[in-house]
């Protein structure tokens, strides 16, 4: 049995243990009180709506992928690529960095290689990704 009382900032939820009359005063100090503002309620509603839309979108995508690949094998193409590998990346680098694109591209490549070597050598474990389910 939860007791809800209105305040100017939002809602206060009291722990049901504080409502029992047979609890003495020393135990009532351990009560849990949490204020939930309207902004927090709105945040939770938007978050729940987003999660539901994302879940439905993922289910739809999975169904489309399964139906697209079911009943027929994927054909391998022997046709040559439509553009040179890396050409699009070079064009983007030119647009972003101008005459320094080649130097910056080389620096990025060297840094990526160092990172890959360190990962291969140290074999780091992945940091756990734990979702916040509120």
Q: What would you say this structure looks like, in words?
A:
- Helices cover 51% and strands 10% of the residues.
- With 134 residues, it is mainly alpha-helical.
- The protein has a domain at 97-122.
- It has a 3-stranded antiparallel sheet.
- The longest helix has 32 residues, at 38-69.
- The model is unreliable at 1-10 (pLDDT under 50).
Based on DSSP secondary structure assignment, what is the total number of beta strands? 3
| SSE series | EEHEHHH
Oligomer: single chain
Mean pLDDT, all residues: 78
Q: What value does the Rg take, in angstroms?
A: 29 Å
Query: DSSP strand (E) fraction?
Result: 5-15%
- Poorly predicted residue ranges: 1-10
**N-C termini distance:** 21 Å
The computed structural class is mainly alpha
Largest sheet: 3 strands, antiparallel
Number of helices: 4
Helix content: 40-55%
Globally, the shape reads: extended
Widest sheet: strand ordering: 1-2-3
């Amino acid at each position: 049995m939860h007791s809800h009382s209105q305040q100017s900032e939002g809602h206060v939820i009291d722990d049901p243990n504080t409502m029992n009359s047979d609890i003495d005063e020393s135990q009532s100090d351990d009560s849990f009180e949490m204020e939930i503002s309207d902004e927090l309620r709105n945040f939770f509603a938007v978050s729940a709506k987003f999660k539901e839309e994302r879940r439905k979108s993922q289910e739809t995508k999975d169904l489309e992928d399964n139906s697209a690949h079911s009943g027929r094998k994927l054909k391998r193409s022997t046709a040559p690529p439509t553009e040179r590998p890396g050409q699009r990346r070079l064009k983007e680098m030119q647009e972003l960095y101008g005459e320094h694109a080649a130097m910056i591209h080389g620096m990025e490549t060297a840094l990526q290689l160092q990172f890959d070597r360190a990962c291969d050598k140290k074999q780091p474990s992945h940091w756990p990704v734990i979702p916040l389910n509120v």
